[in-house]
Design goal:
Blueprint (H helix, E strand, L loop, with lengths): L2 H20 L1 H12 L4 H11 L5 H7 L7 H20 L6 H59 L9 H19 L27 H15 L6 H38 L6 E6 L6 E7 L4 E7 L8 E5 L13 H9 L4 E5 L5 E5 L17 E7 L5 E8 L6 H12 L5
Antiparallel strand pairs: 1-2, 2-3, 3-4, 5-6, 6-7, 7-8
């Protein structure tokens, strides 16, 4: 899921693990642990664009790969536990230079988190909304950094004793719950790497769902202002975990209902199918998207629980697999088929290049005849040997289309069917 959600979950894990011993430091280290797996995006950027030891395809496959596995959680937690145990046992954390470095890191951390969120706001809601979000973020961050200055940089730090095993448990849970949460999204994650390279994707919740994140975040922020020995602090943290978990359970129920409605729709229209996929659209758990595979066609459709008719509005999509029937052994094609779980369609672009569309994510609008209709698609080039090369990965709305897409999504969620 998105970075803010993972930070919130990590902070909650840290608090429940070591909150009574080390106070808000437990939340901070838990938030760091919850962020670590997503640093594979940063690692992929450096390996692809800076050091050029990785191409576009390898970078795509690297995200939610090894660093999102349980093995990584077990092993990297040893590194983090060893570091934090040394840091606090040696009293290095009390030195002014370390405090200043931590303060600077906090600034970077908040800036990095906002950059990710700001990109979403800019793409979907425009510059005005992004700037409003920036003002709100700066205001909240300024208050938190004032408290950090007053109670951390200036005030002497209290002593505490935390064993290596306790640090290890914090990081194991903080890092390990990250890929577990990602397994519930459509993108999925290779949680059992390297023993099994399959992406586990239950697809019951969107990669960004405010109803999951914000109640959870409010509970954690409230707990952060309470004394570490306060019972209310533990209660607020536990409430955040319970509320978010109940909502997550609710999403499974919603998915089951949407799946039943899809099957009823297919039966009514006498469509024989091989397999189906049902997943919520971005930012909500009300409007559901479906992908249906048959022997000759795919069907893409939407259904909102506010729709008057309990059925999916299905649109047939031709897979056009014949465009690559002579490239069954092509490495790039195999990787992209794996990435899309074989829910893919091909099309020829006006510039002559091939485009592979990941049909799990459906379309923004239209009947799928235009290359820009598809939410997640890949533009393919050919080298001199005729092998396919991933030229560009495209996801999200086209330039200046984000606001329109957000409005269309909202209207469709409310049951307004054209």
């Amino acid at each position: 899921m998105d970075s803010l959600t993972q930070i919130t979950l990590g902070a909650a894990v840290g608090e429940l693990t070591l909150g009574r011993k080390i106070g808000n430091r437990a939340m901070m280290w838990g938030a760091v642990a919850g962020t670590i797996p997503d640093l594979d995006v940063l690692a992929g950027f450096f390996m692809k664009d800076v050091f050029q030891v990785m191409d576009e395809l390898q970078s795509l496959m690297f995200h939610r790969g090894p660093m999102h596995s349980l093995l990584f959680a077990f092993l990297f937690s040893i590194v983090m536990a060893s570091y934090t145990h040394w840091l606090y046992q040696s009293k290095t954390y009390q030195k002014k230079n370390f405090k200043r470095l931590s303060f600077g890191f906090g600034l970077f951390f908040v800036g990095f988190a906002y950059f990710l969120v700001g990109q979403i706001l800019l793409e979907l809601f425009g510059l005005k909304t992004m700037l409003i979000g920036l003002v709100v973020t700066i205001s909240i961050a300024a208050y938190f950094f004032w408290r950090l200055w007053k109670y951390y940089l200036v005030k002497p730090s209290y002593d505490f004793d935390v064993s290596w095993a306790q640090w290890y448990l914090l990081f194991l849970l903080g890092i390990g719950t990250h890929p577990m949460l990602d397994c519930l999204t459509l993108y999925g994650t290779q949680i059992f790497w390297p023993f099994d390279h399959s992406r586990i994707a239950l697809a019951n919740i969107s990669v960004v769902d405010p109803l999951y994140t914000f109640p959870f975040l409010v509970c954690i922020l409230t707990a952060a202002f309470l004394h570490r020995f306060s019972r209310a602090r533990f209660s607020w943290t536990l409430a955040g975990v319970i509320i978010s978990s109940l909502y997550m359970t609710f999403t499974f129920y919603h998915q089951a209902r949407a799946t039943e409605i899809l099957k009823a729709t297919l039966a009514e229209q006498q469509i024989d199918y091989n397999r189906t996929l049902v997943t919520p659209t971005i930012f909500n758990n009300i409007l559901w998207s479906s992908t249906v595979e048959t022997d000759s066609l795919y069907y893409l459709g939407l259904y909102s629980f506010f729709d008057q008719e309990k059925k999916f509005q299905l649109e047939p999509i031709r897979p056009n697999h014949n465009l690559v029937e002579d490239k069954e052994d092509d490495h790039t094609l195999k990787q992209l088929k794996f990435f899309s779980n074989d829910y893919y369609g091909m099309m020829k672009r006006e510039d002559g290049r091939l485009q592979l569309n990941d049909l799990r994510y459906g379309t923004f609008k239209g009947d799928g005849s235009d290359p820009t209709d598809y939410i997640f698609h890949f533009v393919l080039d050919e080298n001199e040997n005729g092998d396919l090369i991933l030229g560009k990965t495209e996801a999200g709305p086209q330039d200046r289309e984000g606001e329109n897409m957000a409005k269309d999504l909202w209207n469709r969620m409310l049951g307004n069917v054209d």
